[in-house]
Design goal:
The chain is mostly beta strands. The protein has no helices and 33 strands. The protein folds into two domains: 35-165, 7 Propeller (Methylamine Dehydrogenase, Chain H), CATH 2.130.10.10; 204-393, Methylamine Dehydrogenase, Chain H (7 Propeller), CATH 2.130.10. A hairpin with a 5-residue loop joins strand 31 and strand 32. The strands form nine sheets. Strands 4, 5, 6, 7 and 8 form a five-stranded antiparallel beta sheet that branches.
C-alpha cells in the first residue's frame, strides 16, 4: 500500500517532483532533474522504484523538423520521491509520442507518430533500459500513432493510430485501433485492426484506459469528442470491434468552426467512474494578440454502469485553464490534478489578459464528481507543460 503520493510534472526538458497532500488537496514542489531533451511521456515501472521517460527535441505534430535527440531513459525514484537518472538510456528512431511498460515490467514499448512506428526495449533487472528487441514481423502501425498500452491480461498491446484530419489541401488519413499479440520475448504480431467511423474516416482514436476488474476498455475519440466503450473477451486477448456504447464527451453541442478535441482518459481506481478532458485552443487576432476563440475546456465525468459498462455523463467541470493535455488521479482515488500545456490570451470586453498555464487540483467526491480545490499557476518561459502524473510510492 502506498505510504506517500507524489506528482511528477514536465516543463520542456525538466522533470519536477511535487509532494501531494491528499487530505489538504495541496501540492509542494521539491526538486527537479534535467533530461536529454523535452519530456514526451513518463511511465512508472510496476516496482515503483523507477520511471521510464521518453524525450525528444522535435516539435509535436507532423512538423518536417524531425529533431535529433530522441531517448528512452530510466529514472530512479528515492524513498522521498526525488529523482536521478539511472543508466545511459537508449536512442530512439524519432520523436516518441507515448510509451508504456508491460505488466511484467520486462519491456518498454514506445509509439511514434511521424512516421507511425512502434519499438520494444528490454528492461534490465536493475531497472535500466536494455537492448531493443528486433522484431521478426513488421506489424501494421497505421497513421499517426498516439498511444501504446498493454491490456491487463499482458497478452495484447493496444495501439490507437489516430490518423489525421484533412488540412491545407491534404486529404484525411483514416484512424484505427491496432492490437498486437505480445510474447514472452517481447516480439509483436498482428492481432486486430479495429476500424470505426466510416471505414476509418471521421474516427480519431487517441487514448484508451481499462476497467480495473471488468473486461472493459474505454477510448476517447479525439476530433469527434466521444467516449467509446469496448468489451474484451474473457481471456483478455481480443477486443470487440464495435463499441458497446458511444457517448459525447462535451456538455454542449460541438461547434464545427472551433478547434475542439479530447486529450487524456482515465478510469477511477474503484472502476465506478471514467474521466476525459476536452480541450479548445483556437485563436483569433485581437489587439495584436492571438486570443482564445472559444470552445469547451472541461473535465467530463462519467459514472460507469457496473452491469453493462455504459459510461453515463454526470458532470463537466471547468479546469480554469486552457488546453488540458494531461491529468491524473491519485492511487486512493480522492484527487484529480489537471495540467494545461500553455498560456492563453483571453478576451474580457474590449481588452485582453494572459491566462497562465496551471495545474488545477480537484477533490473527487464519493459520487465521482469533482470539486475544485486550488490552482497553481506556472511560469513556462516559452516551454510547454507537456505531461503530469501522480503515483504512490
Amino acid at each position: 500500500m502506498a505510504t506517500k503520493t507524489v506528482l511528477y510534472q514536465s516543463i520542456g526538458e525538466e522533470l519536477n517532483h511535487w509532494d501531494v497532500d491528499v487530505e489538504a488537496a495541496s501540492l509542494t514542489r521539491r526538486g527537479s532533474i534535467m533530461l536529454p531533451s523535452k519530456v514526451q511521456y513518463v511511465w512508472a515501472h510496476p516496482s515503483k522504484k523507477f520511471l521510464t521517460v521518453s524525450t525528444s527535441d522535435a516539435p509535436s505534430g507532423n512538423s518536417p523538423d524531425k529533431g535529433k535527440v530522441h531517448r528512452l531513459c530510466a529514472v530512479r525514484i528515492a524513498a522521498d520521491g526525488s529523482l536521478a537518472l539511472h543508466g545511459d538510456g537508449a536512442p530512439l528512431p524519432s520523436r516518441p509520442i507515448h510509451h508504456c511498460v508491460d505488466r511484467s515490467g520486462n519491456f518498454a514499448l514506445s509509439a511514434f507518430n511521424n512516421p507511425s512506428e512502434i519499438t520494444v526495449h528490454r528492461i534490465n533487472a536493475d531497472g535500466t533500459i536494455g537492448a531493443k528487441v528486433e522484431q521478426a514481423v513488421k506489424v501494421d502501425v497505421g497513421v499517426y500513432a498516439h498511444q501504446v498500452t498493454v491490456a491487463p491480461s499482458n497478452r495484447i498491446v493496444v495501439f490507437p493510430a489516430r490518423g489525421n484530419d484533412p488540412k491545407d489541401g491534404k486529404a484525411e488519413d483514416p484512424g484505427a485501433v491496432k492490437a498486437y499479440k505480445l510474447d514472452s520475448n517481447g516480439e509483436l504480431s498482428n492481432a486486430q485492426n479495429i476500424i470505426g467511423g466510416k471505414n476509418g474516416f471521421d474516427y480519431r482514436p487517441r487514448h484508451v484506459d481499462y476497467h480495473p476488474t471488468k473486461p472493459w476498455l474505454y477510448a476517447n475519440i479525439e476530433s469527434q469528442n466521444e467516449v467509446h466503450m469496448h468489451r474484451l473477451n474473457a481471456a483478455g486477448d481480443s477486443i470487440e470491434e464495435k463499441p458497446a456504447f458511444a457517448v459525447t464527451s462535451l456538455a454542449h453541442i460541438r461547434d464545427p468552426k472551433l478547434h475542439q478535441t479530447t486529450s487524456a482518459i482515465h478510469v477511477h481506481p474503484n472502476g465506478k467512474f471514467v474521466y476525459t478532458a476536452n480541450r479548445a485552443d483556437g485563436t483569433v487576432e485581437m489587439n495584436g494578440k492571438k486570443v482564445f476563440a472559444g470552445g469547451e475546456n472541461s473535465i467530463a465525468v462519467f459514472a460507469i454502469d457496473q452491469t453493462s459498462g455504459e459510461p453515463i455523463h454526470i458532470q463537466s467541470v471547468d479546469p480554469l485553464t486552457h488546453h488540458v493535455r494531461t491529468f491524473s488521479i491519485d492511487p486512493s482515488g480522492r484527487l484529480l490534478v489537471s495540467a494545461s500545456i500553455r498560456d492563453m490570451w483571453t478576451r474580457t470586453g474590449d481588452s485582453v489578459r494572459l491566462a497562465p498555464a496551471a495545474m488545477s487540483v480537484f477533490r473527487i467526491r464519493d459520487d465521482g464528481k469533482l470539486e475544485f480545490a486550488r490552482k497553481y499557476g506556472m511560469q513556462l518561459n516559452g516551454k510547454l507543460q507537456w505531461w503530469t502524473g501522480m503515483m504512490g510510492l
